[in-house]
Amino acid sequence: MIINTQKFFWKIFQKNLILILLLLLFASCTKKEVLRSEVFKTNSGWGYTISYKEKIIIKQSIIPVISENKSFATQDDALKTANLVKEKLLENLSPTVTKKDLILLKIKL
User: Fold this and answer.
1) Which uninterrupted H or E stretch holds 48?
2) Domain ranges in the chain?
3) How confident is the model at residue 9 (pLDDT cuts 50, 70, 90)?
4) Which of 36, 61, 85, 105 is a good FRET partner for 22, with 20 to 30 A between their CA atoms?
């Protein structure tokens, strides 16, 4: 019984190549979020943090831009603002929030 080693080798090579390509495709499709936003409870409301590789780079416990030291009224308000800041950072823009931004996000001031 003579086995054609070239065909045998080629079949194994094809199977391994397909497996490697599938693994590479899967690895490239996984989303690796570098910036992460989270909300936290304060004494008078809600705040948010922005983290980069598990290190907090922004911690905001009060509403920026307004003259009062007031926390966000709802968890949703804090999250909307955190997501805006995160988007600005991802677009290499200044993470500052203006009063107009807060009004457009319908944040209760």
Assistant:
1) strand 46-52
2) 1-30, 35-104
3) confident
4) 36
Residues 6+ apart with CB under 8 A from 21: none
Which helix (H) or strand (E) is 23 found in, with range? Answer: helix 5-29
More confident call, 46 vs 4:
46
SS3 of 66, please? coil
Higher pLDDT: 28 or 72? It is 72
Closest listed residue to residue 44, CA positions, set 19, 73, 15: 73
pLDDT, position 85:
95
User: Which residue's structure tokens are 């290499």?
Assistant: 92
Amino acid at 27: A
What stretch of H or E contains 99? Answer: helix 99-104
Answer positive or negative: Cα dihedral of 95, 101, 105, 108: positive
Structure confidence by residue, pLDDT tens digits, 67-95: 889 999 999 999 999 999 999 998 999 99
Rounded to 5 degrees, φ, ψ at 105 are -80, -5
